[in-house]
Specification:
The structure is a single chain. This protein has 287 residues and is α+β, with helices and mostly antiparallel strands. The chain has two domains: 133 residues, Diaminopimelate Epimerase, Chain A, domain 1, CATH 3.10.310.10; 132 residues, Diaminopimelate Epimerase, Chain A, domain 1 (Roll), CATH 3.10.310. 17% of the residues lie in helices and 39% in strands. It is built from five helices and 18 strands. It has an 18-stranded mixed sheet that branches. The longest helix has 13 residues. It starts with 7 loop residues before the first strand and ends with a strand. 48% of the residues are buried.
């Protein structure tokens, strides 16, 4: 393996769940020194998880580590489940003192603050980066792209919202409709969007939202849990009167057999996304 010149130990964890084999799987290389961009992309493609992270020494004095995030197809500047899963592994390995309740990770989007609610199953929270709103799409166009009827969508214009990764949020009437969606013609939604994007479907529920996310542009036909989209989801729901109060939970991945629970805490303009992590496996990549 010409791109890997020494053994590299890695962990596999499931994020946004307390149960192994549910949630969103993640590969974490805690010491990726010596790997270049091409090697990291090849490794992420080989592991074929939603994302794989690679940790390096921080270049900023206020951060504990630099984290690079790769899907099987491309690098991301920010992503939620890799941030929370990597935080868990760094704590679990003792690379950050286990009793640390707050720290900052350095990602391509910039510093990402982390806080930890301690306990037997710690809940790890990230602060959502700044949220930006983009163009809207016609409800009829979205319905056709998903194999749904226009009446299956709420009377709210689907819209691109981003906290580093563009997502088209499409509000649907109920969880059953979310599960019925067939995202076979997502290319029809591209229009003026140049960058790759995901399509995030959700229906309001008494506790928050029931969700699914599709991102074929990133090499993910469906993502079991999308932390980077959950802050924007909460923002979008608040903007349209679909969310009251300062707490919500997004249930995602259930349709694909990987139920994930993504918690949201809102404090003014700050939106934190949190979740549990389950350890699954340890491996070694050898040259």
């Amino acid at each position: 393996m010409s791109h890997v010149r020494r053994p590299y130990r890695y962990r596999v964890v499931d994020v946004f769940t307390t149960e192994p084999f549910e949630g969103n799987p993640l590969g974490v290389f805690t010491d990726a020194r010596g790997l270049d961009d091409r090697a990291m992309q090849l490794i992420a493609r080989e592991l074929n998880l939603s994302e794989t992270t690679f940790c390096f020494p921080a270049t900023r004095p206020d951060c504990v580590a630099t984290v690079r995030i790769f899907t099987p197809r491309k690098e991301l500047i920010f992503a939620g489940h890799p941030t929370i899963g990597t935080s868990f592994v760094l704590l679990d390995e003792g690379l950050i003192p286990r009793n640390t309740s707050e720290f900052v990770l350095e990602e391509k989007i910039g510093p990402v603050p982390i806080r930890v609610d301690p306990g037997e199953r710690p809940l790890i929270w990230l602060r959502t980066p700044p949220i930006a709103y983009g163009p809207t799409r016609e409800r009829a166009t979205c319905a056709a792209a998903l194999g749904l009827n226009v009446d299956d969508l709420l009377d709210i214009a689907p819209q691109f919202v981003s906290a580093g990764v563009p997502m088209l949020f499409i509000p649907l009437t109920n969880p059953g409709v979310v599960d019925r969606a067939h995202p076979e013609r997502l290319g029809a939604l591209k229009d003026d969007m140049v960058d790759p994007f995901g399509v995030f479907l959700f229906a309001p529920t008494p506790t928050g939202a029931y969700s699914r996310m599709f991102a074929p542009d990133f090499g993910m036909p469906e993502d079991p849990a999308t932390g980077s989209a959950t802050g924007p989801l909460a923002s979008f729901m608040m903007r349209h009167g679909l969310l009251t109060g300062s707490r919500m939970t997004s249930e995602q991945g259930t349709k694909m057999g990987r139920r994930s629970l993504l918690h949201v805490a809102i404090d003014g303009d700050a939106i934190d996304v949190g979740g549990s992590v389950a350890a699954v496996a340890t491996g070694v990549l050898t040259p």
